[in-house]
Amino acid sequence: MNEIQAENYSVFFAEKGFENLSQILANGGYSKIFILTDSNTTEYCLPYFLQRLETTLAFEIIEIEDGEVNKTIETCFEVWSVLSEYEADRKAMFISLGGGVVTDLGGFVAATYKRGIDFISVPTTLLAMVDASVGGKTGVDLGGLKNQVGLFANPQMVLVDVNFLETLPGNEMRSGLAEMYKHGLIADISYWNRLKDLSNFTTNDLELLIYHSITIKNNIVLEDPKEKNIRKKLNFGHTLGHAIESYHLNNDEISTLLHGEAVAIGMILESNLSLQKGYISELFYNEIKSVLSAIFPQIQLSEKDIHKCLRLLVHDKKNELGCVNFTLIKENGEAIINEEVSTEMIINAFTEYLS
Ligand code: NAD
Ligand code: ZN
User: How do residues 65-91 score in pLDDT, each as one tens digit?
Assistant: First the structure.
């Protein structure tokens, strides 16, 4: 698999990834390596990573607790403190080995420690491979709100190795898959068609599909790295998806949804908005709904729940009640940004989903 050239770094796969990693470590004049893991990646990913890592440099492992609740400034403080205790200097190399929580937080810690040290992302979840580790966004949550503190910073390289996915639970695999379906719907209809029938591909095809997804995301990011316009295409499914995710997160009576699971529902709802706007046919909407409903959990919402989601949506988007901007899709696998949608249309979309 060839490398993917991102802004000022590359994404390398498997063997070539480890070769490039060794080269960067050997030629970068680094003083020491720090490897950030979480409680799961220490167990499942670190032994394989260390076995394949070729370096003469000394290294230290810094482990954080796993999970979104730990993607906070308090955890950053702990990691900065460990770096400081070990007297990490500006030539220290910081490697994040984990899912999106570790790569987002690790990138932020590295980009701010001593005004920025070099870092490398090694994503170990499907979501982090196809989404979180490419595009330069790093950061942490604040007061339960996602990604409130952070900055754009690029790694020296990203290493993608599908072997890490062998231990990833099924629901976490599905969560990443949702973003891959999104890539097809917003940018490449033939990719959507390929992903439609999961029985069609094997684990061997997985690397190729990941490659394809990263390429789609990277091409969009390259056009608009700071999300001024085009990059908003990647928000398809996320406007309502985020509201549903937050609603589940803040409601103790129902089980939480993974990000990708919420985004899958968001994509069904926002496809319905695209249908109501006349951008896609009923046939295509039904196809999207049936493909995604077969893979991702269905949710039940009462009228009251829908209104709570709507309130979260307005809060999230800082928009006046009645109009929220959406990214919608067209029939040919293309996204349209900054689409105004009324509350009534959103309620229609929920009603159709729940029927
Ligand atoms: P995560 O990092 O919480 O990982 C999910 C779970 O899988 C964790 O419990 C983790 O310990 C475990 N895990 C990781 N690798 C494993 C492996 N190989 N085997 C077994 N278990 C493993 O979550 P995620 O879904 O990877 O990422 C979600 C985060 O990514 C969110 O915080 C989101 O905001 C962020 N994100 C960032 C961007 C971006 O552009 N920066 C894009 C999308 C998502
Ligand atoms: Zn997402």
Answer: 999 999 999 999 999 999 999 999 999
CATH numeric code, 4-168: 3.40.50.1970
Q: Report how far residue 152's alpha carbon sits from residue 95's, in angstroms, rounded to the nearest whole number.
A: 17
Report domain extents, the chain: 4-168, 175-354
Q: What is the pLDDT of residue 14?
A: 95
Q: Is the pLDDT of residue 198 over 90?
A: no
Find the 68 Cα to ligand 2 centroid distance in Å. Answer: 14
- The ligand 1 atom nearest the CA atom of 39: 11
**Among 19, 15, 70, residue whose Cα is nearest residue 41:** 70
Taking CA atoms, 241 is separated from 2, 46, 116, 233, in Å, by 33, 32, 33, 14
* pLDDT confidence tier of residue 316, bands split at 50, 70 and 90: low
Instruction: Give distance in angstroms: CA of 323 to centre of ligand 1.
Output: 32
Per-residue pLDDT at 324 exceeds 90: no
**Cα–Cα distance measured from residue 269 to residue 255, given in angstroms and rounded to the nearest whole number:** 20
Which of the ligands is closest to the CA of residue 237?
2
What local confidence, expressed as pLDDT, does residue 253 receive?
A: 78
Q: Which CATH architecture has domain 175-354?
A: Up-down Bundle (1.20)
Does the Cβ of 47 fall within 6 Å of ligand 1? no
Judged by DSSP in three states, 10 sits in: strand
Q: Is residue 101 within 6 Å of ligand 1 at its C-beta?
A: yes
Dig out the tokens for 108 from the structure. Answer: 């932020």
